[in-house]
Every structure is written in structure tokens, then in C-alpha cells.
């Protein structure tokens, strides 16, 4: 089962949100992220959060539509986004797309990206999407279809780095050591029909960036 989590960061392409929502079995609005969902004429299955960033009119509309709300106290150990993910993991969802998790708050942005690692640990495929980027965290292998104007970055996020193999890319590697904090894996391009990435002995953030 696939789920969409929409948080209160930046979403500048509501058409993209609407398109992705059609592929989902379950949609969660995280607190103020409800505004993006309702503006897109999407009916969420659940609203999660402490409701500290949700507009009063949006909250009124949610209640009028009898959309379930899972409310948490404002003083808690987890962010609203992580609480939404915990809910979905408990319900057995195996693929989760996150939108609205990138924004001006760098602390929240980084925390949300790192949540992909927790999903990986739980055996759940997690993807962050906005109008310019798609992000995954992997510890094995994946293929990416070639798209014009798309750059691929492979960034180790564990302190020991990783051995990375890249095939079908402008810059190919064969079990090359990618060190943590190194920029070696930034801004590569796929030059064949597909690009193949294999990560060994580590965990890598894979970013597909569009100009």
C-alpha cells in the first residue's frame, strides 16, 4: 500500500501534488499541510498534528467534512511529520511519499530528510518529492530512468562512507569509496537509458535535481 504525507513546508506546484495523490491509497495532512491538500481539492483520510500551524478556516473545513483528526499535544518528543510516519508504519504501509517537507526551516528540512533513513530501517520505501527534487535513501541498489535536465547526486550519510558503483552515468565508478562529507558524488548525469546505482557498506542519499 502507498501513502502520501503532506506537511507544512513549501509546495509550489499543486498540480504535481494532485497528480501524485491519485496514485495513493491513503493521504495524511500534517497540521498546516492541510491547506495544500484542500486547495488542490483532495480529500485527506486523516489530519495529524498538534494543530499549531493550521489556519482556523482550514480547520473548520476539515471538521465540516468530518475528516478524522489525530491530535497531539504541542509538547512532545517527535515532530508531527514523524508521528504521521509512525502511524503509517503501524498500519503496514510499505511505500510513503512525503511532500511539503522541504522549506525555509533548515532544521525541519534536515530532520525530514533523515526520516527517510528511519523508513529504510523499518523496511519502508520513502521518497521526498517537490517540484525540483526527488530524494531517496538506499543501502543496496536502484535504477533511475534518464531525463533531460536532471542531475543525480549520491551522498553518503553515515560516518564511514560507502562503496558506490555507478553505471550508465557520465562519471562511472566501480566500488569507489565515497567518504562522508565529500562532494565526489554531486551533480552526475545519466547518459544511457537508465542509470544504475549500487551502494555497499553504507547508506546514501540519492537526489534527482531538475534545473
Automatic annotation (TrEMBL):
Keywords in UniProt for this one?
Answer: ATP-binding, Kinase, Nucleotide-binding, Transferase
Q: One of this protein's GO BP terms?
A: thiamine metabolic process
Main EC class of this protein? Answer: transferase
Q: Where is the Thiamin pyrophosphokinase thiamin-binding domain?
A: 134-205
Might you give the EC number(s) for this enzyme?
A: 2.7.6.2
Kinase: present as a keyword of the record? yes
The answer to whether the entry has keyword Lyase is no
* GO molecular function terms attached to this record: ATP binding; kinase activity; thiamine binding; thiamine diphosphokinase activity
**Name of the protein in its database record:** Thiamine diphosphokinase
**The organism of origin for this protein:** Anaerosalibacter massiliensis
Taxonomic placement: Bacteria, Bacillati, Bacillota, Tissierellia, Tissierellales
